[in-house]
Amino acid sequence: VEVLTALSVFFRDALAIKNGSKSLLKDLEQEAEKVAFSFPVSTLLNYYESTNELLKLTQGNPNYNLLVAQLCVNLRNK
Q1: Comparing C-alpha atoms, which of 22, 25, 21, 20 is closest to residue 10?
Q2: Does the pLDDT of residue 68 top 70, yes or no?
Q3: Rg for the chain (alpha carbons), in Å?
Q4: Are the C-beta atoms of residues 8 and 55 closer than 8 Å to each other?
Q5: Which phi and psi angles does 19 have, rounded to 5°?
Q6: Is the CA virtual torsion 62, 2, 35, 50 positive or negative?
Q7: How far apart are the C-alpha atoms of 13 and 2, rounded to whole Å?
Q8: What is the largest CA-CA distance in the chain?
Q9: Cα(46)–Cα(44) distance, rounded to whole angstroms?
Q10: Phi and psi angles of residue 51, each rounded to the nearest 5 degrees, phi first
């Protein structure tokens, strides 16, 4: 859950940078800039939405192995 939350914030920051704002995570600002300029907005938005969808799934009692596998599939296919 903590990793998904961090990924969500990271992709949010990459989207913000892509749109001319600044990163809120100062520790990962350079990495977010690299990601922001490596992918189009649509891909970054898909990554952000995918991580948030998976975060919602953690509210129940998920199989975490399947959740991680789904995250990998989502990041690879989008």
Answers
A1: 25
A2: yes
A3: 13
A4: yes
A5: -100, 15
A6: positive
A7: 16
A8: 38
A9: 5
A10: -65, -35
pLDDT digit string, tens, across residues 20-66: 888 877 888 899 999 999 999 999 999 999 999 989 988 887 888 88
Q: Determine contact, residues 47/78, Cβ cutoff 8 Å.
A: yes
SS3 per residue for the chain:
CHHHHHHHHHHHHHHHHHCCCCCCCHHHHHHHHHHHCCCCHHHHHHHHHHHHHHHHHCCCCCCHHHHHHHHHHHHHHC
C-alpha 51/C-alpha 59 separation (Å) is 13
Question: Which amino acid, 21?
Answer: S
pTM of the model: 0.82
Q: Return the amino acid letter for 2.
A: E
CA distance 44 to 51: 11
Residue 76 is encoded by which pair of tokens? 């690879």
